[in-house]
Each structure stands twice: as C-alpha cells, then as structure tokens.
C-alpha cells in the first residue's frame, strides 16, 4: 500500500487554473492580506471607539444600536450573529444599554424564549449621531483616496465577503452601495 499523496489541494481550497495567490512558501505575516485587513479593521474600530466615547458608549454598543435601528437585528440571536459574539456577551451588553435607557427588551407572547429588542427615544437620539461619527473616522483613514479607489476597494471587499459565504455571518447594517 502506498503512502497518501499529501501534495493535493485541501478540500476547502477552491480549484484555480492560475498560480497560487497565497503560497505558504512566500508567506510574510506583516504583508499578508489577512493581516492587513485585520490591522485596518482594528484601526477603524479604535477610531470609532474614540469618537463614540463622547456619546458615553462603546463601538460595540454603537454597532448594536445601529443594527437595531436599521432592522438588521431584532433579537439576541441576530445581534450575536451580527457582532460575531456569544449570547452571554450580548445579554450583558443589552443589560448595560437597557440600564442606560437606550433599548427595551420584550418577550414574545407566542414564544417566551424569544426576546425582541427595540430602541427607546434616547437610543434613537444616539443612533442619529452615529453616521457622522462613522463618516468622520472613514474620512481620516481614507485621506488621499479617490471615489473610484474607494469604489474598487468596496467591490473587492464584497467579493471577499461573498467568497466567504456572504452575509450569513456578521451581517452588516449597510446596503451594498453605501458606507
């Protein structure tokens, strides 16, 4: 019996007719596309965290409020998926937002296990300020970019998301043409 062929492409790797764009032999952590995406995301997140501190909320709380506002999340489960975190963390997050009077939790009459979430007037007032915060952060990080470059980047990021399974995980509150 012969040894298994360990040079074959893993089942999770899509077949490609062209060269391997991500060859482990030439992998450099500091210039890896994944690393650079993560680094950019972290810098944007830090910028938002700093900006929303003036509203006395965190970036995660801002994201939660925005998702509730746009209807992309209505339950703890929706938020967990959208924020890529566990139900326990979401429950603690919601407790803080509820204590501040920014959201209301309501159990469904037809299924007491499901808790619907909605914004209060105070929550809506904060949400009204968030687009300006997000845009200010983006403006700072995209200095020197043209609209065409931003459109190309947006298109490429959508392709990466689509290749990874679309919006099944971490659904965003913006449509494909905005933000």
TrEMBL record:
<dbReference type="GO" id="GO:0003700">
    <property type="term" value="F:DNA-binding transcription factor activity"/>
</dbReference>
<dbReference type="Pfam" id="PF01047">
    <property type="entry name" value="MarR"/>
</dbReference>
<protein>
    <submittedName>
        <fullName>Winged helix-turn-helix transcriptional regulator</fullName>
    </submittedName>
</protein>
<dbReference type="InterPro" id="IPR023187">
    <property type="entry name" value="Tscrpt_reg_MarR-type_CS"/>
</dbReference>
<keyword id="KW-0805">Transcription regulation</keyword>
<dbReference type="InterPro" id="IPR000835">
    <property type="entry name" value="HTH_MarR-typ"/>
</dbReference>
<dbReference type="InterPro" id="IPR036388">
    <property type="entry name" value="WH-like_DNA-bd_sf"/>
</dbReference>
<feature type="region of interest" description="Disordered">
    <location>
        <begin position="1"/>
        <end position="24"/>
    </location>
</feature>
<feature type="compositionally biased region" description="Polar residues">
    <location>
        <begin position="1"/>
        <end position="15"/>
    </location>
</feature>
<keyword id="KW-0238">DNA-binding</keyword>
<dbReference type="GO" id="GO:0003677">
    <property type="term" value="F:DNA binding"/>
</dbReference>
<keyword id="KW-0804">Transcription</keyword>
<dbReference type="InterPro" id="IPR036390">
    <property type="entry name" value="WH_DNA-bd_sf"/>
</dbReference>
<feature type="domain" description="HTH marR-type">
    <location>
        <begin position="30"/>
        <end position="162"/>
    </location>
</feature>
């Amino acid at each position: 019996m012969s040894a298994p062929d360990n040079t074959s492409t893993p089942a999770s790797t899509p077949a490609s007719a062209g060269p391997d764009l991500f060859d482990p032999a030439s992998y450099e952590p500091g210039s890896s596309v994944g690393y650079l995406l993560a680094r950019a995301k972290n810098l944007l997140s830090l910028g938002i965290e700093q900006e929303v501190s003036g509203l006395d909320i965190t970036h995660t709380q801002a994201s939660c409020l925005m998702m509730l506002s746009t209807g992309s999340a209505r339950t703890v489960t929706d938020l967990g998926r959208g924020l890529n975190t566990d139900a326990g963390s979401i429950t603690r997050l919601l407790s803080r937002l509820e204590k501040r009077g920014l959201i209301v939790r309501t159990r469904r009459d037809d299924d007491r296990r499901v808790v619907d979430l909605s914004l209060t007037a105070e929550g809506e007032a904060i949400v009204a300020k968030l687009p300006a915060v997000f845009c200010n952060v983006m403006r700072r990080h995209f200095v020197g970019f043209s609209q065409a470059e931003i459109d190309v980047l947006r298109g490429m990021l959508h392709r990466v998301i689509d290749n990874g399974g679309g919006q099944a995980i971490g659904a965003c509150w913006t449509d494909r043409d905005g933000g």
